[in-house]
Amino acid sequence: MLFSQHKMKTYAFVGPSGTGKSYRAQLVANERGINYIIDDGLLISGNEILAGISAKKAPTKIETVRNALFQDEERKKEIQDVIKKKKPESILILGTSDDMVKKIAENLGFEPISETIYITDVATEEEMAMARDIRVHQGKHVIPVPTFALKKDFSGYLLDPLQIFKSKGKGKEPYISEKSIIRPTFSYMGNFKISDTVFKQIMDCVVEKDECVHKIHRAIIKKHEELNDGIYIYIEVIINYGYNVNEAMKNLRKNIIKEIEKMTAMNVLNMEIVVKGVNLPQR
């Protein structure tokens, strides 16, 4: 095996899709002293995604399976390189079946799975039914890392923070697990796209509240079509006379990015502002 030299122990957490594995992954790992998790194509440690691309972002079911099983050599090598560097003592693999977690372990060159935990060991039938209902009717998924760690990688996905508290007994500090609920722009709503006009209207609203800027003279929105990981913005503005240009543009940029990312869930990869003219006061 690829990682047998430092004797990394491999655990598995198995359950049908949508039953709450990702929701409970950190809790299961924490109880066994496991600091590394493989979930849906991602290598996760604590609050950080160390490597991989989420299978939840794949455009087709076939690509979802390929990503989750690490059948792509480039993605597989990325995970293996991090494991070689970090040398974890143990790792937890999430999957929908025994065959799936076994295949993931084999593809990544891990030791055979030494222990399997099933979702039925840690969740009741009612809890699993509730998780399935949320997945089917609301299209929501859970990833076991905080929302701030996902924002860049999940442009176009609606993100909600989630915290889980579990008591460890009287007088002991509770276990706190930070996770994120994601809802892609497909799922139960069907596919949808955001028109460039929407971005321009959001920017117009920001400018209306900004006393330093008279109006947007021109705006160009470009999307990163290949990766779909965000947008580029170029705008030309007319500013009002009497304001510090550098400070005014710095605040305008910050406010536009904040509103666009909040309202559309799209990352603003870069924003360029050109001051095209000055609006002089009427005498």
What does the secondary structure layout of this molecule look like, with pairings?
Layout: E1 9-14, H1 21-31, E2 36-39, E3 42-45, E4 48-52, H2 61-69, H3 73-86, E5 90-95, H4 98-108, E6 113-118, H5 119-122, H6 125-138, E7 141-143, H7 147-150, E8 158-166, E9 175-183, H8 196-208, E10 213-223, E11 231-240, H9 245-264, E12 268-279
Parallel strand pairs: 1-5, 1-6, 2-5, 11-12
Antiparallel strand pairs: 2-3, 3-4, 7-9, 8-9, 10-11
Helix pairs in contact: 8-9
List keywords for this structure.
6-stranded mixed β-sheet, 283 residues, Alpha-Beta Plaits, alpha/beta, elongated, 2 domains, 12 strands
3D structure, described in words:
It is a single chain. The chain has 283 residues and is of the alpha/beta class. The protein folds into two domains: 4-189, no CATH class; 196-279, Alpha-Beta Plaits. The protein contains nine helices and twelve strands. The strands form three sheets. A six-stranded mixed sheet has the order 4-3-2-5-1-6, with helices on both faces. Strands 7-9-8 form a three-stranded antiparallel sheet. Strands 10-11-12 form a three-stranded mixed sheet, covered by helices on one side. A hairpin with an 8-residue loop joins strand 8 and strand 9. The radius of gyration is 23 Å and the shape is elongated. The protein starts with 8 loop residues before the first strand and ends with a strand. The model is unreliable at 146-150, 162-166 and 185-190 (pLDDT under 50).
Write down the domain tally: 2
Tell me, rounded to a whole number, the average pLDDT. 79
Tell me the quaternary state: single chain
Widest sheet: strand order? 4-3-2-5-1-6
Q: Order of SSEs, N→C?
A: EHEEEHHEHEHHEHEEHEEHE
Structural class: alpha/beta
Task: Tally the helices.
Answer: 9
| First and last CA, distance | 81 Å
